[in-house]
Amino acid sequence: MQLLMAKKGEERKIFKLIVRDEDKKRLEHLGFLSGETIRVISNVNEIFVLEVKGARLAIDEMTASKILVY
């Protein structure tokens, strides 16, 4: 499923990033790696605040739609 569909408070594992190579590198440097657990802190006004490896990061709805999780 897309990260876009995850609800506030849910923990999910990253399955795959479906983005351009340069975006993939940037996200991987931020901790968005296959198998990594992420938690949705909030998803308000098309902005997702996530916890990845103990850090909080914000991504937009379009990016969240390109991250597949399970």
Q: Care to describe what's here?
A:
There is one protein chain. Helices cover 20% and strands 43% of the residues. The protein has 70 residues and is of the alpha+beta class. It has a single domain (3-69), classed as SH3 type barrels (Roll), CATH 2.30.30. It has a 5-stranded antiparallel sheet. Strand 3 and strand 4 form a beta hairpin. The mean pLDDT is 96.
The spatial strand order of the largest sheet comes to 4-3-2-1-5
> What characteristic shape results from the CA principal axes?
globular
- Give the radius of gyration: 11 Å
**What are the low-pLDDT stretches, counting only 5+ consecutive residues below 50?**
none
What do we call the CATH homologous superfamily?
Answer: Ferrous iron transport protein A (FeoA)
The tally of structural domains comes to 1
TL;DR?
The chain is built from two helices and five strands; from the N terminus they run E-H-E-E-E-H-E.
Layout: helices, strands, pairs:
Elements lengths: L10 E7 L3 H9 L7 E8 L2 E6 L2 E6 H5 L1 E3 L1
What are the key terms here?
alpha+beta; about 45% strand; SH3 type barrels; globular; five-stranded antiparallel sheet; 2 helices
